[in-house]
Amino acid sequence: MKKTMESQELNKSIFLLQPSRPILCTTKNEDGSDHVAPFSWVNPVSFNPPRIALALSNSPKKQNSLINIERTGEFVINMPDMRIADKMIEASYSTKFGENKFIRSGFTGEEASAVAPKIISECQSHLECRVIEIIEPGDHKLIIADVVGASYNQEAYGVDLHINTQNFQPVIHMNDYCLEGSQLHLLANIQGTVALNVPYPSNNKDQECK
Ligand SMILES: Cc1cc2nc3c(=O)[nH]c(=O)nc-3n(C[C@H](O)[C@H](O)[C@H](O)COP(=O)(O)O)c2cc1C
C-alpha cells in the first residue's frame, strides 16, 4: 500500500531517491594546499559537451569545497570503492582549526591533466571539471561544470567502461545514523552484474539506441 507524504514532510522525499553513489571531490584551498570531501548529489547533465552537476550545501552551512570551487572554478570528481569507504566517510568530518583534511585523510594526491586540484590515486576514476555556471535552486548551490579531463584504472573498468565488479566495488550509500562518537553508514554490496535483456515493444521496434 502506498503512503502519501504530508506536505510538511516533503523535504524528506529526497530520501526516496536512495541509494546514492558518493564521490570524493578534490579542490584547492586558498593557500594552494589540497582539500577533499565526499558528496552524493552529483549527476551527468550532458553528453556533448560532457557536463556534470554537483549540488553543495550553501546554507545554513557553506561547504568549504563550495568556497574553493567558487574561488578557483575547478574541482575533481574521484570515484572511491569499498576498500576506502571508511576513509571517504571520515573525509566528511570537520577538521580542527589549522588541520588539513587531505593530509588527515592519508590519500595520495597525483597531478591531474587539465586542472589544478589533485586526483586521488586510491580512487578508480577521475573527472576533471571546470565550472561554467553556478545557480542557487535552494539551500544547495548547483555547480554545472565541463569535464575537461578524465582518467580511470583499466582493471576497474572493462569494455565500454562497464565496471568490472571483480576489481571495483563501488560505494552505494543507503543511509546514515549519528551515534555517540561515530556515524553508522549503511552501504549496499554489489555482488556482480545482472544482465537484463528487455525487448522493444512489438508495435514499435524502431527505438533509438545510444
Ligand atoms: C556519503 C556522504 C554524502 C554526502 N553528500 C553531500 C552532498 O551531496 N552535498 C553536500 O553538500 N554535502 C554532502 N555530504 C556532507 C559533506 O561531506 C560534509 O558536510 C563535509 O563536511 C563537507 O566538507 P567541506 O566543508 O570540507 O567541503 C555528504 C556526506 C557523506 C558522508
Characterise this structure.
The structure is a single chain. The chain is mostly beta strands and 210 residues long. The protein has one domain (20-188): Electron Transport, Fmn-binding Protein, Chain A (Pnp Oxidase, Chain A). The chain contains three helices and eleven strands. The chain has helices at 64-72, 85-90, 101-105; strands at 23-28, 34-39, 42-46, 51-57, 74-79, 109-110, 119-120, 125-135, 140-152, 172-179, 182-188. It has a seven-stranded antiparallel sheet. Strands 6-7 form a two-stranded antiparallel sheet. Strand 10 and strand 11 form a beta hairpin. It is globular and about 65 Å long. The two termini are 36 Å apart. The structure holds flavin mononucleotide.
Rg: 19 Å
Low-confidence spans: none
H/E element sequence = EEEEHEHHEEEEEE
Task: Please identify, by name, the CATH architecture.
Answer: Roll
Largest sheet properties: 7 strands, antiparallel
Adjacency order of strands in the biggest sheet: 2-1-5-8-9-4-3
Number of domains: 1
Mean pLDDT: 94
Number of strands: 11
Write down the CATH class.
Mainly Beta
CATH topology: Pnp Oxidase, Chain A
Q: Identify the CATH homologous superfamily.
A: Electron Transport, Fmn-binding Protein, Chain A
